[in-house]
Amino acid sequence: MIEMRYPTVSRRTAPLGWGSMMVVAGAIALSLAAGAAMLAAHGKAPLTGIWLLFYGGFGSGWALEDSLLKAIPIFLCSLGVGLAFRLQVWNIGAEGQFALGAVGAAWPALTFPQLPAILLIPAMMAAAMIAGGLWGMIPGLLKTRLQVNEIIITLMLNYIGILLLDYLCYGPWKDPVSFGFPMSPTFSPHAVVGTIGSSRIHWGLFFCIGFGVAMWIFLRFTRLGYELRASGENPLAAHYAGLPYRRLVVMVMVVGGGLAGCAGFLEASANINRLQPSIMVGYGYTAIIVAWLARLNPLQIAVAAYLLAGLRVGVENLQLDLQVPAAFGGIVEGLILLSVLAGGFFNHYRLRFRSRS
Amino acid sequence: MTADFFLSLLAATVQSGTPILFATLGEIITERSGVLNLGVEGIMMIGALAGFLVARETGQPATGFFIGGVCGALLASIHGGICLGLQGNQVVSGLALTILGFSLAEYLGTPFIGQTAPGFFAVPVPLLSRIPWVGPVFFRQDLLVYLSYLLPPILWWLLSHTSWGLSLRAVGENPDAAKAAGLSVAGYRWAGIGLGGFFVGLGGAYLSLAYTHLWTNNLSAGRGWIAVALVIFAFWRPMRAVAGAYLFGGVMAFQLRLQAMGTNLPSSLLLMLPYVLTVLVLVLSMRGKKRGEAPAALGINFEPLD
């Protein structure tokens, strides 16, 4: 008699707990290994590549600063995206809301350059968050009023928002002395968010901490935050319990848009000091991956945002030293997301090997 | 505007609508089986690159076109593995596929930017191409456009009049009942994902082999997402997809003509047209009465537990 062992699958009754962190770590390791294999296939030294990636992202004080600078916009965007995901609203629009934020911030900066910073900076931030929030509100309203699919609308608004930014940089807001380059004039010093001490990190870091803590308090200790968590678990039950599901959907879209808009403001004001098309580098899409990795916990979002920001900086290093195309970062990001999804299976199901005769 | 201008605009409409038509038909098949695949944009890019590279290497555009479809199906099968095998979230898996496919095509295609490959060019159909108005618009196109005329009726027949097609739809509407009736839910969904990915890949290959004839980054430029929107506009019906695809083909062709004519309108605003139109089309199609026609189990995983 030959003994056979059959795998059987059953639903987990208890959450996997710390095991889920292992799943994410394993997924990242697997994706990096696949990336290394791609480098090897192209005749580049794979281990050197992975080393350059790590060293470029985390290996020096300069690299750590660079990663932190990139983590700021990613964190802000994914805080809002994660909020929407929690409600099972698929906000893919952080990229466009970020663009609108940059545009919104540039308007007061270019119109009232002589205002003192104490007035100009808050005006830029408010304009950015309103512009981003309104850009997020459109799909929210269309979803709740007409059941229009928010995924496609947010994506289309990304394309439209980026083209609007392009239009302003090529047309009405173009710097007359830019020699044909599409960019606005440099912002006045009053419109620039400064750096902390002698570091390269700007004060936007404190915005992140502030918004992160506010989000945590909101979800943990407020009635609306509770309602949001409950509606996310089971929209239908929430509807019957009289929770304001439709208002919550519009709210998370507006808040997400505002946060992404704030990221656009910080990027334009503190990092680039002007409006130009190259401000759009896909932070809004990276934010989707971060939000899915970290779900809603602001602290986990911060960690994941920092990791993926480090990956971006590392890829820049790889580009310089090994002439690897920038798209390498996107490949690794896509692989991380896919393998985390695949690994999620072990969060929800138990695989047992039973013997049958 | 002269009649000649108008006719050439309409012919360009059909041509630029064709890749969107292939992609929309593919996504219709996938969604009819109950699987939402948002990887269309990434699959198109992979199809475009695979078609381009194979045509370049072999000198045979037809082989390239076919391999573009096959590679589309291969990439889509990752979605199958995640959603059907491992019960992963369909929305996120599709997004990941778009990120992966798009980046992979850009990465592998970097050395070939600006290069050309043998492709498809217009072959007028004898007799038919001489019909006034209709001939110049529909029958002076390349062979792949003629192929695309045949697909919608074939798919319509397949989905509405064959037992295989009805079973596929049953799996998309009510997988529990379909399983009870002895159908393999996973089997039909794998078929939907594979066949759908194949057609989306063909749409991508059309872009590089018959539309631009050269490789550039971001060749698909949102056409994959427009196709996802058109599936809703078409109420998941192959024949209605034709109207949607040509509507977008028309806007894209018109926009290109305007730019070529040197209008005063800034190109950024002209480029917005298809995306604004997508929003409008979606809003309008949700205002109609038929909006409940999505496959009932669309986007919901089916657990084959004991």
How would you portray this structure in words?
The complex is a heterodimer of chains A (357) and B (306). Chain A has a domain at 63-292. Chain A is 71% helix and 4% strand. In chain A, helix 3 crosses helix 12 and helix 7 (204-221) packs across helix 8. Chain A has 357 residues and is mostly helical. Chain B is globular and about 60 Å long. Chain B has one domain (3-124, 131-293): Orthogonal Bundle (ABC transporter involved in vitamin B12 uptake, BtuC), CATH 1.10.3470. Chain B has 306 residues and is mainly α. Chain B starts with a helix and ends in a 19-residue tail after the last helix.
Topology, element by element:
The complex is a heterodimer of chains A (357) and B (306).
Chain A: E1 4-11, H1 19-41, H2 46-58, H3 61-86, H4 94-111, H5 117-146, H6 150-170, H7 204-221, H8 223-233, H9 235-240, H10 245-272, H11 283-294, H12 298-322, H13 327-348, E2 349-356
Antiparallel strand pairs in A: 1-2
Chain B: H1 3-32, H2 40-58, H3 61-85, H4 90-109, H5 134-138, H6 143-161, H7 163-173, H8 175-180, H9 185-211, H10 223-233, H11 238-260, H12 267-287
Helix pairs in contact in B: 1-6, 1-9, 1-10, 1-11, 2-3, 2-4, 2-9, 2-10, 3-4, 3-9, 6-7, 6-11, 7-9, 10-11, 10-12, 11-12
Largest sheet of chain B: none
The average pLDDT of chain B is: 91
Q: Class of chain B in CATH?
A: Mainly Alpha
CA radius of gyration of chain A: 22 Å
Shape annotation of chain B: globular
Number of helices of chain A: 13
Report the average pLDDT across residues of chain A: 87
Q: Let me know the number of strands of chain A.
A: 2
Biggest beta sheet attributes of chain A: 2 strands, antiparallel
The figure for the number of domains of chain B is 1
Question: Helix- and strand-based class of chain B?
Answer: mainly alpha
Strand arrangement in the largest pleated sheet of chain A: 1-2
* Terminal residue distance of chain B: 67 Å
β-strand percent of chain B reads under 5%
Beta-strand residue fraction of chain A: under 5%
